[in-house]
Amino acid sequence: MSMNDQPCVDTYDVSLDHQISILNAAAGLEDDSPVPRLSKEELIAVHLNNLEVLKNSSKPQKPKPLVLPAAYAPSIVSLNDLQKVR
Amino acid sequence: MKSQLQRSVLNSIQISFEDLKVEVHHRGYFVTARTITPPYLSTEVITIIEEEGGNIAKLELCFQNPHSPDSDLPQNSTVAIKEPYYKYNGDGDYVIRVDHPSDIAVLRGDDPAVSMIMDVVSKTKTITPSEWKNAGDKAYLEKSYSSAIEW
Fold first, then answer.
1. Do residues B74 and B137 both lie within one domain?
2. Which terminal residue of chain B, N or C, has fewer Cβ atoms less than 10 Å from its own Cβ?
3. pLDDT tens by residue, A54-77
4. Cβ pair A31:B21 closer than 8 A
């Protein structure tokens, strides 16, 4: 069974080229309103299916090739300060 | 004269998932929600959160150490996420991505300390200082470090 035949459980299971294309596409979407592909019920169903896939996977998982974007800068405002203004 | 930081704090408000914009760091805002599914660990911890009002979003925690007992995010936990970053995840898929532990506060759904604190807040229970101390020590010895902090 090739890696491509395994159930895809998240973005990082896709190929490196696909990950790079997602990162490139993301750069052009800044400040857009999201257009979700899945409804609330479908999103939950996919998540629960992913849980089942991982739970029932008896084979050791191969190391995943991945492209992680650089981490953003952490917030410098305390949660307490954010809540005070409510 | 107020500093830039003070102005940003004074303008801070709670934001709804409906108002999140793609690839934007919502500086000065925060979201609160509850985890409605168990998490799974892929390259990161992934779960689904629901805010008051019923809107849901996918949440990714990208800072977790899978070898730490506190690394997961159990169902029915309450989370507050500071200055959320809403990330495009490909083909109509979006996530709130958290890169730093300091950007999220969690009241774990499986933490006895949390339910005990809720009881105290609602004045249905009184706990002595020694009971607090013993419970915190027990949580620490069990390596439930975030719970130990709550105690």
1. no
2. N
3. 888 766 666 666 667 778 888 888
4. yes
Same domain, B74 and B118: no
Whichever domain contains B92, its CATH number is 2.40.50.550
- Cβ-contact B37, A47 below 8 angstroms: yes
How far CA B67 is from CA of A68, B83, B146, in Å, comes to 20, 27, 14
* Chain B hits for A45, Cβ within 8 Å: none
Q: Is B7 on the interface with A (CB under 8 A)?
A: no
pLDDT grade for B38, boundaries at 50, 70 and 90: very high
Q: Name the domain count of chain B.
A: 2
Dist. CA B18–CA B55, nearest whole Å: 7
- In the block, tokens 């690394």 appear at B71
Q: Is the pTM of this model over 0.90?
A: no
- Domain boundaries, position B50: 4-109
